[in-house]
Amino acid sequence: MIYNASSSIFALIVNFKIEFILRPWRISVDITNQTITIEQRNWYLIGRDTSIMAFRFIRNVEINEHVFGADISIRALGSTVTAYYISKNAAQNIKKILIDFNQGNNSSVFFT
């Protein structure tokens, strides 16, 4: 199962982030491959900046809600990925997917 979300153009305009309308953040959570991918076009609009993280050992999921839109920051074993100005509903769905995955994953290693 793959869940995709993108920055809301309305949230970008209302939060005065007009420079990111042509290069919004896109987040993709892939349950089968256990990866989180965040993409954004670079400033020259000819390539993409991509950050891929395996989410086997998630430490923290932080959602910062604005009046319109939300930022989601996911931390797993020292690396952090962040997607800005996605919809609040998409941020809550991603949080729920990640928490449900961690609760159902009994083969995880515990650190002491």
Shape by Cα distribution: globular
Strand content: 35-45%
Write out the strand line-up for the largest beta sheet, numbering strands in chain order.
1-2-3-4
Largest sheet: 4 strands, antiparallel
The overall average pLDDT, rounded, is 86
Helicity level, as a percent range? 10-25%
In DSSP terms (H or I, runs of 4 or more residues), the helix count works out at 2
Intertermini distance: 32 Å
Going by helix content, strand content and strand pairing, the class is: alpha+beta
What is the alpha-carbon Rg in Å? 15 Å
Q: What is the chain-wise order of helices and strands?
A: EHEEEEEEH
The overall strand count is 7
Low confidence ranges: none
Keyword list:
alpha+beta, 112 residues, 42% strand, 2 helices, single chain, 7 strands
Note down, in words, how this protein is organized.
The chain is an alpha+beta fold and 112 residues long. It is 21% helix and 42% strand. It has helices at 9-14, 88-104, and strands at residues 2-6, 26-30, 35-41, 48-54, 58-65, 70-76, 79-86. The strands form two sheets. The protein has a four-stranded antiparallel beta sheet, with helices on one face. The protein has a three-stranded antiparallel beta sheet with strand order 5-6-7, covered by helices on one side. The longest helix is centred in the C-terminal third of the chain and has 17 residues, at 88-104. The chain is globular, with a radius of gyration of 15 Å. The termini are far apart.
